[in-house]
Amino acid sequence: MSDKNVFDNAPDTLIIPALSPVYERFAQPLAWTVFRIAVGAILVLEGWPKILAPLGQVGFVEAMGFYPGWLWSPMLAIVQFFGGILLVFGLLTRPVALANGVMLGVTLYFHISHTFGHVFLTPEGVEALKAGSAFFTDAARFRLADGGAKFLELVQGKAEYASLYWMGGAFLYAAFGGGYFSLDRLLLKKLF
Predict the structure, then answer these.
(1) Rg, C-alpha atoms of the chain
(2) How many domains are there within the chain?
């Protein structure tokens, strides 16, 4: 392992040395901040329904083995929603990102171990679909012609990849902090 800083933009290490100040003063700070805001904003959006119904996840968290559900469900809402707000602003970035990374890791495990299944429709449902039932649009008939297997495969993949992506983003900020334009750095004058 090298002791060289991976974020080093020294001109002698770059193919186009003249870009060193662009990377140092513009590209890295902007990218780091924009991605932190995106990760936090997604957590806020996903956490808002849980804030509106803090006990709405009781059955879900207990099914995953987190007892008592009346405690874990509101904690999930708080970590996700308020943690997302703190992440957007880069305040207490590392602990908040770590908590959300762990939560998203549990979510990823859940999606991998509890798939959506192989089909939506029973053979009778497929026959009703083929009969041109007024209950189905053309798009539904197209997507569910195989009982929904391909559709569910896409949904399953998106659930797993989204959890993996946002978990990776959260752990990135847990490891490296809020970055250049964060309240940790601007107000606290230190990285958490």
Answers:
(1) 22
(2) 1
